[in-house]
Amino acid sequence: MFNCSFKGRYDTASASATNVAAGTLTLSAGDLMLRASMSDAIFSTGPSFSDLSFSVEKPGAFSIDYDLSEKDFEFQFMNTVNVLEKPLHLAYTHAKGKNRTFLDGTLVLSGVNKVLASYALDSGNCKLKYTRVRGPTTFEPSYDTAIKSWDLAVSQKFWDDCVLKASYKTSSKVLGLDWTMKGKPSGAYKISASLNLLEGLQVPKLTAESTWNFDM
């Protein structure tokens, strides 16, 4: 079975707005998932393609990705263990060419609480995030040990298909607002606005995205 996903993005962050597209083609082959993806295909000044990648994945076990543009392999191994009767999802990721290794963990404390950690073995940097779901509202404070800064994101769900998310990054003083809506019968739409408070009052930078999913 084939699954195809296509995303278009219109960005006003640069001096001249750009139109960017991304696409993913996924094939289910028994326990394995074969995937080809492309991102950052720019059409505003003529077609320009980059970030082509291919991957083989066994969900919950391992994935192997090959970045064609950078000629780099990335390996990821996944497992789940129990810690005090709580599931801990682990992922070990190594990028061969960049020589970067990460260890990610998600501890599910309950149906509404979980703690996420990402540790870079090469640099020793660690990022921590706590997620709490309270009805239609989700709180996500996070801390980056490398730059010693806190970030905060709050999401509010409206109906069954609309989510409004506000975020603030203390390190860069960037305030963000995202509105996401699921389309019918498949796909999604997203409108984002960001404002750098260090630059004073100005017109927010806007981004519009649309995603379509097809099963064949």
TrEMBL record:
Q: Which InterPro entries match?
A: OEP24
Q: Which keywords belong to this entry?
A: Chloroplast, Ion transport, Membrane, Plastid, Plastid outer membrane, Porin, Transmembrane, Transmembrane beta strand, Transport
Q: Look up keyword Plastid and say if it applies.
A: yes
Query: What GO cellular-component annotations does this UniProt entry give?
Result: chloroplast outer membrane; etioplast membrane; pore complex
Which GO MF term does the entry hold, naming one?
A: voltage-gated monoatomic cation channel activity
Q: Which GO terms describe its biological process?
A: regulation of monoatomic ion transmembrane transport
Where is this protein found?
Answer: Plastid, Chloroplast outer membrane; Plastid, Etioplast membrane
Q: Which residues form a coiled coil?
A: none
Topology with regard to the membrane? Multi-pass membrane protein
Oligomer status and interactors: Homooligomers form large rather nonselective pores in plastidial outer membranes.
Described purpose of this protein according to its UniProt entry? High-conductance voltage-dependent solute channel with a slight selectivity for cations transporting triosephosphates, dicarboxylic acids, ATP, inorganic phosphate (Pi), sugars, and positively or negatively charged amino acids.
Official protein name in the record: Outer envelope pore protein 24 chloroplastic-like
